[in-house]
Amino acid sequence: MSAHLSLPRVVVAAPASGHGKTTVATGLLAALRRRGLTVSPHKVGPDYIDPGYHALAAGRPGRNLDPFLVGADRIAPLLRHGASVPTPADIAVVEGVMGLHDGAVGRRDYASTAHVARLIEAPVLLVLDTTAQGRSAAALTLGMAAFDPAVRIGGVILNRVGSPRHETLLRDALAEVGVPVLGAVTRAAEVAAPARHLGLVPVAERAPESVAIVTALAELVEATVDLDAVLDLARTAPPLTAPAWDPVAAVGGPADVERPRVALAGGPAFTFSYAETAELLTAAGAEVVTVDPLRDPALPTGTRAVVIGGGFPEAYAQTLAGNTALRAELADFDGPVVAECAGLLYLGRSLDGLPMCGRLDLTARMTDRLTLGYREAVAVTDSPVARAGEPVRGHEFHRTTTDPGHGDAPAWRWNDAEHGFVAGRVHASYLHTHWAGHPEAARRLVEACR
């Protein structure tokens, strides 16, 4: 697919975290869908939780656009891919990360919302928390726009407006700087979702409540945002010229293995998985099936490899411990196993004193310290997903620690320290990776099923 694609699109951004980007982006997705539009949801950065709400609102997978993890040259192709499957989208809504111009530490605005907006040539809809702010909101907006003239702020959503008089003051001030106000949300009307660590509680953990929240957000946006104006703004984006990302091309076609079955952990305890992971495994020739370690007493029949991603297993440690049959099967499973973060904890001997699979000789516990950030890692040990010496980019996001912190054969090295475990055909660490950035991992895992 190389022809130009006309895809209306808009980036929902803010001057800083906490202004209400997720409220507006999720509400927009749901409200546009209720209008009968097919909406493609996207999130800047590595976050797994917001895309879950986006998926619920849009009715199709929420996808991440992270230049640090996958490379800047893949961002527009991944957007086009996400907006094309399973069906072509009428519009794409991209939720930003942190403040508009906040990039990876020490890299100026690389991997920032502004960087992604430039890469996909999309106008920005700026969400402003107007609490205790009047005309200064216009100065802030003007500064955000002038800081990088290549980023076009096409409109503002006023959030947490105190009164009709407050709204009038804000609208008048923004009219002075020529930025249209496309919506205003009062403090009383704002819809809240429960937070955990640095974001919302994952959708899968509270499905009925999540549906109610998304419905409320749709109604909120319908009542407070000029949807026609947002659509008009999105239509000002030029056609996408980059070809769509193709998972088959990325992995070089199916591996020479007879369609092995790969079990991908899911369910409320293991919600962190990028949509492209399953697509790449399928493209490499695997049959991808789901296993829920909370409920399933066994791996799916014929499973040849297992991928256990991230999540919040500490919230479900008692139930995970109680599924003794699956724990025992994973302890003895002789196929390749790849585990990230939550998967690492699950494969250990115990989590907060409760028994886990015992596949790895480690204990894990919750701490008060949040470990968070991008990592530039190098593989230390050959494994089913990496070769020693191979560089990879990833991110950490956890409040747990393991004892020991790495095995005799570590998985990775970053910041002059070794991390993770390679034990036989098991590769496990805290590092979250996006396989679109190193698709050879999917092919190697499938080849390791021989």
TrEMBL record:
Function: Catalyzes the ATP-dependent amidation of the two carboxylate groups at positions a and c of hydrogenobyrinate, using either L-glutamine or ammonia as the nitrogen source.
Coiled coil feature spans: none
Enzyme category, top tier: ligase
PROSITE patterns: GATASE_COBBQ
Gene3D superfamilies: 3.40.50.880, P-loop containing nucleotide triphosphate hydrolases
Alphabetical list of CDD domains matching this protein: CobB_N (cd05388), GATase1_CobB (cd03130)
Catalysed transformations (reactions): hydrogenobyrinate + 2 L-glutamine + 2 ATP + 2 H2O = hydrogenobyrinate a,c-diamide + 2 L-glutamate + 2 ADP + 2 phosphate + 2 H(+)
Provenance organism: Micromonospora vinacea
Domain CobB/CobQ-like glutamine amidotransferase: 262-438
Cited Pfam families: CbiA, GATase_3
Annotated protein name in UniProt: Hydrogenobyrinate a,c-diamide synthase
EC number(s) stated in the UniProt entry for this protein: 6.3.5.9
Miscellaneous: The a and c carboxylates of hydrogenobyrinate are activated for nucleophilic attack via formation of a phosphorylated intermediate by ATP. CobB catalyzes first the amidation of the c-carboxylate, and then that of the a-carboxylate.
Keywords, comma-separated and alphabetical: ATP-binding, Cobalamin biosynthesis, Glutamine amidotransferase, Ligase, Magnesium, Nucleotide-binding
Pathway: Cofactor biosynthesis; adenosylcobalamin biosynthesis; cob(II)yrinate a,c-diamide from precorrin-2 (aerobic route): step 9/10
Domain observations: Comprises of two domains. The C-terminal domain contains the binding site for glutamine and catalyzes the hydrolysis of this substrate to glutamate and ammonia. The N-terminal domain is anticipated to bind ATP and hydrogenobyrinate and catalyzes the ultimate synthesis of the diamide product. The ammonia produced via the glutaminase domain is probably translocated to the adjacent domain via a molecular tunnel, where it reacts with an activated intermediate.
PANTHER family: COBYRINATE A,C-DIAMIDE SYNTHASE
Active site, per annotation: C341 (nucleophile)
Site (Increases nucleophilicity of active site Cys): H432
Ranges of residues in domain CobQ/CobB/MinD/ParA nucleotide binding: 10-198
Similarity annotation: Belongs to the CobB/CbiA family.
